[in-house]
Amino acid sequence: MSLPESARRVSPKNEAARAPSVEETPVKLNIYDVTNNPTVQWINSLFANQYSPVKFGGIFHVGVQIGSREWAFGYKPSGTGVFWTPPLFAGAHHFRETIDMPPTTLSRTEIAEVMTSLEAKWSGPSYSVFRRNCCHFADEVCELLGVGSIPEWTYRLANIGSTAAEDAGEDPGEVRFQKLT
């Protein structure tokens, strides 16, 4: 004798009671216009208007907020380029928008291990405007946290710049740091 379909279904209430307790930590992608320069803000609003469903790209700084810390990567002449600030600490950049990523199910200890390994891997001198910047770092952080990739439009112009430099016979990896004023 077979049970009816309704008797075989597990109700959400019963499923939740049987599921192991998994800690979830919110992950957010905080996107900034690079610098507080109004021209950069105008370019970004033109090519990646925060209210538009379609975005081409722009000149962005990106940080990954995990709980109460926002992690990012930048140029330093020595040591790690990985650093954290309180969330939405604008500093030299103009805050633009936050994208909620799925929460990570990694434990606090696992998150700390991921960030420690990235501090060793992402040295300050290895920063490259086109090939190894804060957007590339944020993408790797999100992948390692198991929350997926960051939106491609956040680093699309860096990838275009890398291709253009290669086509011009330049080494895009040599474009390390430029101050935008």
From TrEMBL:
Organism domain of life: Eukaryota
**Could you tell me which residue ranges the PPPDE domain spans?**
25-167
Q: Which InterPro entries match?
A: PPPDE_dom, PPPDE_sf
For this UniProt record, the keywords arranged alphabetically read as follows: Hydrolase, Protease
Q: Spell out the residue ranges making up region: Disordered.
A: 1-21
A Pfam family (short name) is Peptidase_C97
Q: Where is the signal peptide, in residue numbers?
A: none
Q: Name one GO molecular function term.
A: deubiquitinase activity
Annotated GO biological process: protein deubiquitination; proteolysis
Of which family is this protein a member? Answer: Belongs to the DeSI family.
User: What is the protein named?
Assistant: PPPDE domain-containing protein
Lineage, highest ranks first: Eukaryota, Sar, Alveolata, Dinophyceae, Suessiales
